[in-house]
Amino acid sequence: MQQTTTDITIVDARPEHAPFIAWVMLTAARSHVEKGMWEFMAGPDEARTLRFLEALASTDEAHWAHRSLFLVAEVGGRPASALCGYFDEEHGTATLASAMPLALQATGVTPEESAAGWQAGGSIALVAPEHVAGAWIVEHVATLPEFRRQGLVDRLLEAVLEKGRARGATVGDVGVLIGNDRAQRAYEKAGFRVIDEKRDAAFEAAYGCPGIRSLSRPL
Q1: How many Å apart are CA 12 and CA 62, to the nearest integer?
Q2: What DSSP line would sit under 73-116, residue for residue?
Q3: Taking the CB of residue 44, how many other CB atoms lie within 10 A of it?
Q4: In terms of Cα–Cα distance, which of 12, 22, 9 is closest to 68?
Q5: Can you say how many angstroms the Cα of residue 135 is from the centroid of all Cα atoms in its chain?
Q6: Which residue, 104, 143, 131, is CA-closest to 5?
Q7: Angle, helix 18-30 to helix 46-57, in steps of 10 degrees
């Protein structure tokens, strides 16, 4: 049974949220599998991956993993859940090109390690969702375990979709790893519907998951 709390504040992420945002991105990428994309890129241990993600979230230039794109749900002043929203045309994957090397260097990941990680986990590019022009993309959704099933993601989704609507978006998109049924049900409850899925044998061999489903809803 889902519980709710009224002591929730939705805020734009602040610089001091960067460590929490790092945890959110790591957890969201893991989804229901053992190892997510970021761990291939910046592992081998969780501590280094988190340091990398904190550095990535704090670069000078904005991109789809940058703190400035996130909304945070605070409960009693404590960050408990977060997600981000953006236009692919503004902050999509291409904008990581200059940020990634800086974050890897700051974390002590060598170019050789990074290249090996991408060779092992880069198959995620083969199942990445495609978006229509002008879609508002919801990404990096995660909640601390002790605050789950309290309506935080519902509140965050409502806020981030309104943010996209205010910017002129007419459709919202989100992707989910196939098999993460709980996340898919949450998005469907918020009005999203499955529109496509991509499967790939190399991705499944690396991640233990067949692929990614794309969900969309009108704004």
Answers
A1: 14
A2: EEETTEEEEEEEEEEHHHHSGGGGTTHHHHHHHHHT--HHHHHH
A3: 11
A4: 12
A5: 16
A6: 143
A7: 120
Other Cβ atoms within 10 Å of 39 Cβ, number:
21
Q: Give all strands (DSSP E) within the chain, no chain letters.
A: 8-12, 70-75, 78-87, 136-143, 171-177, 193-199, 211-218
**Distance, C-alpha 28 to centroid of its chain:** 5
Give strand pairing partners of 70. 84
Which is nearest to 138 in space by CA: 193, 87, 195? Answer: 87
For residue 210, whether the previous peptide bond is cis, meaning omega lies within 30 degrees of 0, is no
Crossing angle of helices 181-189 and 152-166, in 10° steps, is 60
Side-chain half-sphere CA neighbours of 150 within 13 A: 17
**Residue indicated by tokens 């409502």:** 158
Residue-by-residue pLDDT tens, the chain, 219 positions:
344 556 889 999 999 999 999 999 999 999 999 999 999 999 889 999 999 999 999 999 999 999 999 999 999 999 999 999 999 999 998 999 899 999 999 999 998 998 999 999 999 999 999 999 999 999 999 999 999 999 999 999 999 999 999 999 999 999 999 999 999 999 999 999 999 999 999 999 999 999 999 999 999
CA distance 209 to 203: 7
